[in-house]
Design a protein that fits this description.
Largest sheet: 9 strands, mixed
CATH class of the largest domain: Alpha Beta
Shape: globular
CATH architecture of the largest domain: 2-Layer Sandwich
CATH topology of the largest domain: Dihydrodipicolinate Reductase, domain 2
Helix content: 25-40%
C-alpha cells in the first residue's frame, strides 16, 4: 500500500512512526503542503519520499492519505486528494468551519472512498468498557454526564513555542473547543445525540494566543439527559475526568490513572470495571491507523466517519454561537 501524509507536525510524525511499526512495507510519501524545498521541511527518517506540490503528491499514486495539518486546511486538501481517488484519514477536527464539509462527504460517498476522522478515544479501552456498561443497562437510564479536561498549553508540547502552534492561532483552527473536541466525541458516544447547546467561553488567561482558552458547555441530549463539558488550556496540574449518572448507578473515569469505577445502586457498593494502571496511549493511535488501513483494504466503513465528525463540529460551532449570541442553540 502507498500512503501520503499531509503535514508533519507532532501528530503527523506520530502517525509516520506508527505506520512503520504496523507495516514496514507501506510506501510513505510526505507532502509539505505549505513549504518549499530548502526552507527546513523534511520527510523524516521513515519517509520514502518528500514532495512540496499537490501534483507531485498525486504522481506518487497513493492509495490513501493521512491529513494531519491545521484544521483550517483539512477540507481543501481532502477535496483535492479525494478527487484523485485517495481514501482519507483526517485528524480531528474534520475542519474549523462547515464550509465545503458536505461537499467532501458527498465526494467520498460518490467515489466509494473511506473517510475516517482521528478521534483516537474510540479505541481507548476504558471508554469501551463504560460504553458497554451503559449499553447493558448497568447504571439504568442515563440522567447526566460531566466531562472535564484541562492542561496548561505551554506544557502540551514542551519542545515547541506554544504561541506558534495550531492550538494558539485562530487562522489555523485553534482554540480549546476544537483542539479538545475529543470530549464532545466521547460524551456523545456514551450518552447519545445532542440536540441543544449553551456555552460560555473566553480567553481568560495571560497566554499569548488569539483564541479561547476556557469553555464551559451545557448539553441537552435527545434522550432527555443533560451534560456539562469543561475544557481549558490553563489548568495545572493536568486533569481529565468523566462522571456518568444513571437511575441505577454511576460510572466514573480518571484519565490520569485510567481507572473506571462503577457504583451500583442495587448493592450500594463501588467496584472497578477497569483498574488503575499504566496505559500506552500511543496504542490508541496505533489501533486507529490499523483500523483505517483495514477499512481501506476491505472497503468497510470506519468506526468514526465523516458524518460523526461533522456532527461533533456542529456541536463545537453551536457552543461558539451560543456564547456570541447569549442563547441556547439547537443542533
Amino acid at each position: 500500500m502507498r500512503v501520503l501524509i499531509v503535514g508533519l507536525g507532532s501528530i503527523g510524525s506520530r502517525h509516520l512512526d506508527n505506520l512503520r511499526v504496523i507495516d514496514r512495507s507501506v510506501h510513505v510519501t510526505v507532502w509539505h503542503q505549505h513549504r518549499k524545498p530548502g526552507d527546513g521541511g523534511h520527510g523524516g527518517p521513515a519517509a520514502d519520499c518528500t514532495v512540496y506540490r499537490l501534483e507531485d503528491a498525486i504522481q506518487t499514486k497513493p492509495d490513501a492519505a493521512l491529513i494531519t495539518g491545521p484544521a483550517s486546511r483539512h477540507v481543501e486538501a481532502g477535496l483535492a486528494l479525494a478527487e484523485a481517488g485517495m481514501h482519507l484519514f483526517i485528524e480531528k477536527p474534520i475542519s474549523d468551519t462547515l464550509n465545503k464539509v458536505d461537499e467532501l462527504l458527498r465526494l467520498c460517498r460518490e467515489r466509494d472512498l473511506v473517510l475516517m476522522v482521528g478521534y483516537n478515544f474510540v479505541f481507548y479501552r476504558p471508554f469501551q468498557i463504560m460504553q458497554q456498561a451503559i449499553m447493558e443497562g448497568r447504571i439504568g437510564r442515563v440522567l447526566s454526564v460531566r466531562a472535564e479536561v484541562g492542561q496548561f498549553l505551554p506544557e502540551w508540547r514542551p519542545a515547541s513555542d506554544y504561541r506558534q502552534t495550531v492550538s494558539a492561532q485562530s487562522q489555523l483552527g485553534g482554540g480549546v473547543l476544537l483542539e479538545l473536541s475529543h470530549e464532545f466525541e466521547y460524551v456523545r458516544r456514551l450518552v447519545g445525540e445532542v440536540k441543544a447547546v449553551s456555552a460560555e467561553l473566553g480567553h481568560l488567561s495571560d497566554l499569548e494566543i488569539d483564541v479561547e482558552d476556557t469553555a464551559e458547555v451545557i448539553l441537552r441530549f435527545t434522550n432527555g439527559a443533560i451534560g456539562s463539558v469543561h475544557v481549558d488550556m490553563t489548568q495545572r496540574p493536568a486533569r481529565r475526568i468523566c462522571h456518568v449518572v444513571g437511575t441505577q448507578g454511576t460510572l466514573t473515569w480518571d484519565g490520569s490513572t485510567h481507572r473506571v469505577g462503577f457504583f451500583s445502586a442495587t448493592t450500594n457498593t463501588w467496584s472497578e470495571l477497569h483498574p488503575a494502571g499504566r496505559i500506552d496511549v500511543n496504542e490508541t493511535y496505533m489501533k486507529e491507523i490499523r483500523h483505517f488501513l483495514d477499512c481501506v483494504r476491505r472497503r468497510e466503513p470506519p468506526k468514526i466517519g465523516g458524518e460523526d465528525a461533522r456532527r461533533i463540529l456542529e456541536i463545537v460551532l453551536a457552543a461558539k454561537r451560543s456564547h456570541q449570541e447569549q442563547r441556547v442553540v439547537e443542533v
